[in-house]
Design a protein that fits this description.
Blueprint: H1 7-18, H2 22-28, H3 38-52, H4 59-68, H5 77-86, H6 94-121, H7 126-147, H8 156-171, H9 185-191, E1 199-204, H10 210-223, E2 228-232, H11 237-249, H12 253-258, H13 263-272, E3 280-283, H14 290-304, E4 308-312, H15 321-326, H16 328-346, E5 350-355, H17 380-384, E6 387-392, E7 406-416, E8 423-430, E9 435-439
């Protein structure tokens, strides 16, 4: 096996920093993982600290700083620093040494990850092996994304691509010009469809119809020819299928459960059987981690051309052992970030259902508009999401019959990274069909 470190490159990079190239190193994200020789890392860290204090860096000041930290002798004294400076004729050599060190750092990380996996896999249970394989697969995917970024890019190609996109949309106008339609026209009018690479969080308290809305969007997408995968952590495939049948064919589930079916119901069941031809996949694993989900999602996209993912729901995804040790906040933060990375990696929209805090239910709060701070367990959800949609019941419901099983439910666009936020879209929620029907704002 070849060497996993390059002392010459490490010394050359420090020399470039002494000559003024520290900005380039900070931009590249240089840290302790870039150095096999920790003494050299201590020199770099001291240079970075001086830079952060806006101090001019030269050899004499660096000697003084290291002596004050009692580390000068450990790195070989002033003569060693002079030798490091001599390793770099100019600060312009930094990019070369950075490229070299990045390759060695990547190899060390990959080796450590593989060795750790081999150690853990001995005697592991099947579920644990699955998790480890998915974790390793995600690591390799993320690593390859970084390794391929070996040059800087200007906006030239991007601008040309955007102009071409705008011209194409001008000549081929659509109702949802930027993304895949949800099938709910009032929502699409505001969102302009769901964008590839976007994370859409659909949140509400229990009973407000999160699952019905999520499955409704999935159903509308598949009916329009877009394959969808649903990760259902709360319901099994049969329950999901029953819900979809009810929504698709206006089949009253209360009649189905009680066995009180008439001729019209059987006609609707026949209509609902058409669902079997739709490109919709349901994953019912309840022990799934974000790494396993990313692995499964890649398979759905690769094998079946899936165009969107629906996750029901975010807070039920299992955290990694490391995040679970730190608490629920860290678990949810890890998961929301993982969902965003999954959307970007696969270049498809991901719709993640989520819970609102219990505080929202106290008093008459459930009749007010939810806020981003009402998202349960982690502020990172609102940071990672491109769009946050909140389901809630408005203060009055006078437009619907008092004895009706229907309810008015609004969907608030609380955050919209690519458009206007703060807008309400109005729906009638038909509970017997678990179905949302768009309403006009004045209905």
């Amino acid at each position: 096996m070849g060497s996993l470190h390059n002392k010459e490159a490490e010394e050359g990079l420090i020399g470039c920093c002494i000559l003024g190239a520290v900005d380039e190193c900070i931009t590249a994200g240089v840290d302790g993982t870039w150095f096999a020789d920790l003494r050299l890392y201590e020199v770099y860290r001291t240079i970075e600290e001086m830079h952060n204090r806006s101090e001019t860096i030269d050899l004499s000041k660096l000697v003084y700083e290291l002596r004050a930290k009692n580390t000068l002798d450990k790195i070989g004294g002033p003569a060693a620093l002079t030798g490091l400076e001599d390793k770099a004729p100019t600060a312009g050599n930094a990019s070369y040494w950075l490229h070299e060190l990045f390759g060695f750092r990547t190899r060390r990380q990959a080796k450590a990850k593989l060795e750790n996996a081999l150690e853990r896999i001995s005697g592991a249970k099947v579920a644990e092996v699955d998790d480890m394989v998915s974790d390793l697969q995600s690591f390799i995917t993320d690593l390859s994304d970084h390794v391929t970024l070996d040059k800087d890019e200007t906006l030239k190609d991007t601008i040309l691509s955007v102009i071409s996109n705008i011209e194409e949309r001008y000549h081929n106008k659509t109702e949802t010009p930027w993304g895949i339609p949800t099938g709910f026209i009032n929502l699409d009018n505001e969102l302009l469809g769901l964008r590839n690479g976007g994370l859409y969080v659909l949140a509400g308290r229990p009973g407000q119809g999160k699952t019905a809305m999520g499955l409704g969007i999935a159903l509308n997408m598949t009916v329009s020819g877009n394959p969808v995968a649903v990760f259902s952590l709360e319901m099994n495939k049969e329950e999901v299928a029953m819900r979809l049948m009810a929504t698709y064919a206006n089949l009253d589930m209360a009649h189905v459960f009680r066995g009180r079916l008439d001729k019209a119901d059987f006609v609707r069941i026949g209509e609902a059987s058409k669902l079997q031809t739709l490109p919709l996949w349901v994953n019912e694993r309840t022990d799934i981690t974000i790494n396993i989900m990313r692995s499964e999602a890649r398979r759905y996209v690769r094998n079946y051309g899936v165009r969107a993912i629906v996750v029901d729901y975010l807070q039920l995804i299992k955290g990694s052992p490391e995040s679970r040790k730190q608490g629920k906040y860290e678990v949810v933060s890890e998961i929301s970030r993982g969902l965003k990375l999954m959307a970007q990696e696969l270049d498809i929209p991901v719709i993640a259902l989520a819970q609102l805090n219990r505080e929202f239910e106290k008093g008459n709060n459930q009749r007010r508009q939810p806020k981003l701070s009402d998202l349960r367990d982690s502020g990172s959800i609102e940071q990672d999401a491109d769009c946050c949609l909140f389901l809630y019941e408005p203060p009055t419901d006078s437009a619907l019959e008092p004895e009706s099983s229907s309810r008015r439910v609004n969907c608030l666009i609380a955050k919209n990274r690519n458009g206007a936020s703060g807008k309400d879209t109005h729906f009638e929620f038909r509970q017997e069909y678990t179905k949302f029907i768009p309403l006009s704002p004045v209905a």
